[in-house]
Amino acid sequence: MSKPLMDDTLLSGTNAGFIEAVYEEYLHNPNSVALAWREYFDKLANQQNQISTKPPVNNVATATAMKSSGIEIQAALPEVMSIDSDDRKQVAVLQLINMHRGLGLNQANLDPLGLKQQLTIPELNPAHFGLTEADMDKVFNTGSLVGPDRASLREILQILRETYCGSIGAEYMYISSVEQKRWIQARLEGQRSNPGFSIEVKHHILERLTAAEGLENYLHTRYVGQKRFSGEGNESLIPLLDNLIHRAGKAGIQQIVMGMAHRARLNVLVNTLGKMPADLFREFEEKQPQDLPSGDVKYHQGFSSAIKTPEGIVRLALAFNPSHLEIVNPVVEGSVRARQHLLNDKLGDRVLPVLIHGDAAFAGQGVVMETLNLSQTRGYGTGGTVHIIINNQIGFTTSDPRDSRSTLYCTDVAKMIEAPIFHVNGDDPEAVVMVAELAFDFRMKFHKDVVIDMVCFRRLGHNEQDEPMVTQPRMYRIINQHPGTRQCYADKLIAEGVIKQEDADNLIQAYLDAMDEGVNPNKAVFYDYKSPYAINWEPFLKPFKWNKRIKTGVAMQVLKQLAIRLTDIPEGFKLHSRVEKIIADRRLMGKGELPLDWGMAESLAYATLLKDGYPVRLSGQDSGRGTFFHRHAVLHDQIVEDQNEPIYIPLRHLYPDQPDFVVIDSMLSEEAVLGFEYGYATTQPNELVIWEAQFGDFANGAQVVIDQFIASGEAKWGRVCGLVMMLPHGYEGQGPEHSSARLERFLQLCADYNIQVCVPSTPAQMYHLLRRQMIRPIRKPLIIMSPKSMLRHKESISSLDELAHGYFYPVIPEADNLDLEIIKRIIVCSGKIYYELLAYRNEHDIKDIAIIRLEQLYPFPHEEFQAEINRFNNAKDIIWCQEEPGNQGAWHRIQHYLLRHMRPDQELGYALRASSASPAVGYMARHKFTQNELIVAAFRDKI
Fold first, then answer.
1. Are the C-beta atoms of 366 and 428 separated by less than 8 Å?
2. Among 53, 234, 553, 943, which is disulfide-ready with 456 (CB 3.0 to 4.6 Å)?
3. Average of per-residue pLDDT across 871-897
4. Domain with 891 in it: what CATH number?
């Protein structure tokens, strides 16, 4: 194509759609279009800079809005003399269309309170592009605008303003995929953002609004002043969810997992999920059964039910949620991924995640970004999430929106994954329902996240005991005069002749009557439905004796066969020389010719569990190879021809039709990833689910998940979970952030037999511990203080026989070859320090001191420990020895257990580092000095 041909023939109005598409590609990436087009568009830009009296963006508000919407465009049309007037105006019309698609939301009617001053966007005015009143009735090609191929400028403007400047404001022009943008345009522009619902649908929307408002009014009257985090002002959420569920059923969705904080939660529980009002009233009156160690407040409770749709039943689950707002997001995603795995739902066509957010929290909490970042990854994707933001424009009562974020909209963080965002006025429930349909259909079509920003208000304070007028007088003067969304919509339907006033009044009375009876008027709720895919949790809920030994050994023949499969590398697959040596050694280990190291024992634990029918899921930042170069579950071919580097995972090739083995090198996140794995484990008790920290200290970044879910979820909500956390722990001179997994924090959280805290010191112990986690008929979180340097310690080895015939020992006793009668001291310890104590004792030929390894710190193995110290009748003192400072580690928790088992004539002492604000020193010389000092102290004559 020559440049003269382009200038002379291709700029006619009939080619407008083609020009627009090429220009759009040019704006996104100039190098993606042909050279002639690139030169031409560059010429337009240069001439704009030379002769235009306006800058391309001549308004601060426009610049901010364009940046927010991802638009980069020369706004004012250059006066290019080689283009005749008609063609110049045609291109101007196309630019005007493009601007409305990207910036129209900034002049949309989104705020029910009318508080926000709309941005002045000159680029939405035809005059900005040289179009005048005289052009209004001229007919132009509409390009890719959905509708007639040719229309007058007046008609085009009407389509654009109805579509993009009404009750719906769309943000999607930053999306790279032209297909996705065109799909959104077809849906919005095709309907002009007007759903055109039938009378029947309008009746149903009003009924759902009446239910939403009716519950809040009823609770407000009956339980005056009690906290409920009212949904008044955002009642449109209920018809939104109702439509979403029924549309999901029509599309074949079988399960929806929802997560939300406390705002409007009670309303969703009753009016969406179908919780019986009588049950809710009992919670207000504190008459519910006290069957949990602690329980939780009513607005943190979860619930599950089923909804009948014309196309089938949809199971609903609302996740339990603490007050930490957005922390439930990754938990829901993990639960969804587990359900999809059970249903073999690889695309997310059968299980849908729905997350309901607050505006300030969505913009303010980092776990939102972390969870969004998981959405398109291989190990954590769920086929797209529907995000719904209850945007009450205030966050919490004393906040000023200007202090809540640095972005134009609370939703801007979602643009990082190119999720489309649909802002909608909560006082226009038909627009809200239309957006719900649009969002769901987009998710199902493209399997990507999508965001609905429902702009509404909050009638009461942050809670019902709060007085918002104190700090928000202007906003609450307007809110106090607002009649409510239900009333506004009822008035609209009355004006349209759809209903009469008595119809609206009858709906109110019918709902109040149902509340008085304590029943739920939602006829779509199916209370007796039992899904064929439901997991049977009964085996894990029965009483179980903690110290009961479970056979975890596996026949020697099976171990050797699996070892062969683990070390059988495909022909032509070139291993790295260091990895090749590790695999060769593992072959010898599998034959019994070399003692087992940690990597091989752990691999055999997974292999035998897979043989027993248990899937395995392992994730962490270096889980495939292992942070300490020990695991090598994923092998990489060193002959790499392209970026698609071939890998081989032996644990996936043990035998035909084996359960899944999934190992994931996660993104650099602790909070979201650990929350995800917790959600997964609470949904799938028959799969070994492990999260491994790169270093144990890094679990600090996920402390909210540990405190509010892992440690307390069963006590608060009855949520049983078998998640394993591997936290590399040990003092090796690597400084404060690479030493301690903060053992003391986990022990402080121990109560009610809620978690297990173990410190295995041999490969066989790790093997049996992992197997015990699945074979034993209980599911409790397992915290493993896993090794670092001990992975290659010459003394920390095991035999195949120990794997075949042993089990996990909560206490490893002293060797039998000691003279028990001469023992005067017992040193009790856990982990790596044992080998240093043992080396010191051997070096100094000490015969009268015994060393006991405590491998399970909680639940404390009282019987095993008592039996061991009873062997030493003449021991006068017991020493607890640990690497950690005295204010950290196990000392403060363990001393009470030790005292409980000591004789009156025995004394308790300790050998440890001095208390410290930092978990470890940062200087190797200082580390070695203090390490040697505490070892010597453990053997010192006087304690």
1. no
2. 234
3. 96
4. 3.40.50.11610
Please write the tens of the pLDDT for every residue from 178-217: 999 999 999 999 999 999 999 999 999 999 999 999 999 9
**Same domain as 720, residue 678:** yes
Alpha carbons 357 and 454: distance in angstroms, whole number = 10
Which CATH number is 798's domain given?
Answer: 3.40.50.12470
SS (H, E, C) 284-343: HCCCCCCCCCCCCCHHHCCEEEEEEECCEEEEEEECCCCCCHHHHHHHHHHHHHHHHHHC
Q: At what angle do helices 366-374 and 328-342 cross, to 10 degrees?
A: 20
Report yes or no: 423 and 455 within 8 Å, Cβ to Cβ.
yes
Given this model, what pLDDT does residue 124 score? 94
Q: Is 404 helix (H, G, I), strand (E, B) or coil?
A: coil
**160, 175, 190 - which closes a domain:** 175
Is the Cβ–Cβ distance between 553 and 803 less than 8 Å? yes
Checking phi first, is residue 891 left (phi over 0); if not, alpha (psi -120 to 50) or beta? alpha
Query: What number of other Cβ atoms are within 10 A of residue 659's Cβ?
Result: 17
Rounded to an integer, the average pLDDT of 763-772 is 98
Kindly report, residue by residue over 112-145, the tens digit of the pLDDT.
999 887 788 899 999 999 999 999 999 999 999 9
The answer as to whether 543 is a domain residue is: no
476: pLDDT confidence band, cut at 50, 70 and 90?
Answer: confident
Question: Rounded distance, CA 87 to CA 78, Å?
Answer: 12
Token duo for residue 597: 């190291």
pLDDT of residue 28: 67
Q: Is the pLDDT of residue 84 over 70?
A: no
* Overall domain count for the chain: 4
Tokens representing residue 59 in the block: 């308004």
pTM for this predicted structure: 0.91
- Please calculate the CA angle 743-773-296 and round it to the nearest 5 degrees: 65
**CA–CA separation, 916 vs 615, rounded Å?**
42
Whole-angstrom distance, CA of residue 943 vs CA of residue 878: 9
pLDDT of 697 > 70? The answer is: yes
Give the closest residue to 746 by CA, choosing from 841, 858, 847, 653: 858
Question: Which CATH number is 462's domain given?
Answer: 3.40.50.970
Do 271 and 219 touch, CB atoms closer than 8 A? no
Q: Which domain holds residue 24?
A: 3-175
Query: What is the rounded (10 degree) CA torsion for 810, 815, 816, 817?
Result: 180
The dihedral region occupied by 765, where left means phi > 0, alpha psi between -120 and 50, and beta the remainder, is alpha
